[in-house]
Design brief:
The protein is of the alpha+beta class and 252 residues long. The protein has 2 domains: 6-120, OB fold (Dihydrolipoamide Acetyltransferase, E2P); 128-244, OB fold (Dihydrolipoamide Acetyltransferase, E2P) (Beta Barrel). It contains 5 helices and 12 strands. It has helices spanning 6-15, 102-127, 208-212, 216-219, 237-244; strands at residues 18-27, 41-51, 63-67, 75-86, 90-99, 130-136, 140-143, 155-167, 176-180, 198-203, 222-223, 231-232. Strands 6, 7, 8, 9, 10, 11 and 12 form a 7-stranded mixed sheet that branches. The chain has a 5-stranded mixed β-barrel with strand order 1-2-3-5-4. β4 (75-86) and β5 form a beta hairpin. The radius of gyration is 23 Å and the shape is elongated.
Length: 252
């Protein structure tokens, strides 16, 4: 990969399931019985796991089999990879790699992960009416019934207890979230509301029929989670606050 192409690196870094520094020790080999060794496979020892999917913690010091884009010589690399197979070991498939110099392993990768995250969630954050860290309260029915032959939605509502407001205004009363109780064909990208969920939420005004399901007194403080991307882990609060901040010299 060309280290002078930060946007390309950022896109790949954000999309790859695994980002790790590894020592390629056995080119042309495989540590998995179910994955045949050939010139594009190698056994890599993980030196540092920069990002891994849930359930794959503790990879440092372990051997992985990697299916490479092209054969590589022995050496240290930063790999961007996706899961290929799990069995007697773990196999991943390379998306891209960098030589693991100190700069590429630290500065370039750290910047790439931050840029990739900002590119993915930034448009949703900046388009939101309200962005806040909070916890979803108890769910209550709000009306509507799902139908087998149409796209009606069973709406539920829940208060949102806000810990920190990042963007927008919520007034004197707690915001009221309204959303589908179950997955919906009509809103395929909208997550079902879940009581007790603590996250950073990017909130939008509700769709008209969801708003109509609420009592009139709750409508002016009602919000909607439109996409799964609009729910981010609490540890991303500072990153999201930086994304939401207007450029210097400009006020929202």
């Amino acid at each position: 990969m060309n280290e002078g192409a930060p946007d390309a690196i950022a896109t790949i870094a954000d999309a790859a399931a695994f980002v790790f520094v590894g020592s390629l020790e056995r080119p042309g080999a495989s540590a998995m019985e179910t994955l045949e060794a050939h010139e594009n496979t190698a056994v890599v020892v993980v030196e540092e796991a920069i990002r891994t999917p849930p359930g794959f913690a503790g990879l440092e010091g372990r051997e992985l089999t990697i299916r490479l884009l092209t054969p590589l010589a022995r050496g240290r690399y930063v790999f961007f990879a996706d899961l290929l197979a799990v069995g007697t070991g773990i196999a991943v498939e390379e998306v891209a790699h960098l030589d693991a110099t100190e700069e590429s392993a630290r500065n370039v990768i750290g910047d790439a992960l931050a840029r990739g995250y900002a590119a993915r969630v930034g448009p949703r954050i900046r388009a939101a009416a309200v962005v806040a860290l909070g916890t979803v309260g108890k769910l209550r029915d709000a009306g509507g019934e799902p139908g087998q032959d149409d796209e009606r939605v069973a709406w539920v509502k829940a208060p949102l207890k806000i810990e920190e407001l990042v963007l927008g205004e919520v007034g004197a009363h707690e915001p009221m979230l309204v959303g589908p109780r179950y997955a919906s064909r009509r809103f395929p990208r909208t997550p079902a509301l879940k009581a007790g969920l603590r996250a950073v939420f990017a909130l939008q005004p509700p769709p008209p029929d969801a708003l109509e399901a609420l009592p009139a007194a709750e409508r002016d403080r009602a919000f909607f989670i439109a996409e799964t991307t609009d729910v981010q882990p609490p540890e991303r609060l500072q990153d999201i606050a930086a994304i939401a901040a207007p450029p210097r010299g400009r006020r929202r």
